[in-house]
Amino acid sequence: MEISDIPSFQNLYHHRAHHFNLTKTKLLHNNPNFFFSSKNHSHNKQPRKTTTYSIVCQTKNNEEEGEKLKPVGSGNSRFRSKSQDFVIKKSKGKSRMIWVCSSCGNSSSQWWGSCKSCEAMGTMTQMSVSQTEFVEDKSRKSWIVPRKTDELGPQRLTDVNKGVNQLTWRIPLSGVFGAEVSRVLGGGLVPGCLVLVGGDPGVGKSTLLLQIAAMVAQGGDSGGPSPVLYISGEENVEQIGNRADRMGMGIGAEDLFLYSSTDIEDILEKAQLLSPRALIIDSIQTMYLKGVCGSAGGIMQVNECTSTLLRYAKSTDVPVFLIGHVTKTGEIAGPRVLEHMVDVVLYMEGERYSSHRFLRSVKNRFGSTDELGVFEMSQSGLQAVSNPSEIFLSEQQLDFDVLAGLAIAVIVDGSRTFLIEIQALCTPGMPVSGSVTGIPQSRFNMITRVLMKQAGLKLQDNVIFVNVVSGVKLTDTAGDLAIAAAICSSFLESPIPNDVAFIGEIGLGGELRGVSRMEKRVNAVSKLGYRKCIVPKSAEKSLASLDLGGMKVLGCKNLKEVINTVFGSN
Questions:
Q1: Overall pTM > 0.85
Q2: Which of 104, 187, 434, 505 could form a disulfide linkage to 477, CB 3.0–4.6 angstroms apart?
Q3: Residue 345 — left, alpha, or beta (φ > 0 → left; ψ -120 to 50 → alpha)?
Q4: How many C-alpha atoms does 447 have within 13 Å on its Cβ side?
Q5: Does residue 305 contact residue 284 with C-beta atoms inside 8 Å?
Q6: Which conformational region is residue 225 in: left (phi greater than 0), alpha (psi within -120 to 50 degrees), or beta?
Q7: What CATH number did the domain enclosing 482 receive?
Q8: Which positions are tagged coiled coil (predicted)?
């Protein structure tokens, strides 16, 4: 019921003589059952702002029964009644248009080119909301449900972990594949954690989690078999079963349960009956929760579904995996708060025409975010790569005869050291037609300009192509020296010996700068049988005490010394 003026509302509340006789009246602010709106809106084309009220009324029991509410006057604001108990209901309010950021969920009354909250460009989407729309109690719930121990009050830090064995607290993942996944997770699967896995379509997210589900169900190092529930909102049970059969997972997966549904309430009911050791949701953008506005995949639905699963994980100690879709820019689709709510965010990367996949942690509350897992996609699923350096080196580097334009970079990603091949090609032509794959364009531009200015190479009349083997994205600045060496090799048409590796960052003055974990990089090079390693001069003394098995460490101050050392004899 809409009240058109304040006096009528006051008369109704203070029981004036021309209104019904009330024995009990209760005024509830911010309730959807009653609202008041201003009359002064004739000169304002914008929708009216409303304040929501509720009036719960009861009459005397000895009054006449059966009399209906009757309006008095021209509006709906004045009623007369003698007997009936009633609750005044709200009328349908007018809808209004708002603009919501698809990246972070921030709303605005007008369109902006960039979101005022997250500053994302072109993400404001128009939505229609009811004028009297209210937030349900479900949306006011916290992310986590307090445990019984939390209700007692604050606890000492020294008392929280008493009796907990940190070595057996995590759920271990067995085998070579499990060890690779555990490295990225920080040492195993934490009970009650919420893990979000994102990646491009077809990169292998569902395959990865299906293998993890089968591994946890079989038990392995963690003891006997345990039930695991795999939920899919994109495939039916038969399609998931056929994929599992192709991967050879039919034997020993009796405790892996498949279910196809998109209703969160239905899923949690099945989970409560099964009591699984782990729960996998594929994917969060296909799930919906009853009572929440918006379609599946919308901002509100993704937010509320994730918070519901988070409360389930924290209250039952069941690890929950979520698969998340990504946008065309490579970010997780949905509100930005999604990545804040979860405990772990994993990204799966890989080139379209390459069989290699990289699992990278960008957020981890229980471990390091510097770890990287390397896998290879095969007919039987993802296989862990024990020695990643072998896949990053071409056959040319393993033979005696090598081609010009090839150089070896030594990079560190997390706790692992990789040797990666850099390829470069310089040909006469317009320089604007060159291309770069695997390294940032800005880094490539800086290295080429330094080579022209500080090393004296006339690259301005050449088209330069640079490629990183196996689709690896090189972000470590320790690969600068290898990139410059590969360009020099192609420009001078002088091959680099296949037993030489390069470590170092290049400054704008052409000087070589030291990088972190130098000892670890040099040890990895020596173990693979390389005879020479070019490093910055500043790191040469600290490496002199290492037992490198006969490998020589050559220190250089700048690019000119590198060119003379590597290509001088040629």
A1: no
A2: 505
A3: beta
A4: 27
A5: yes
A6: beta
A7: 3.30.230.10
A8: none
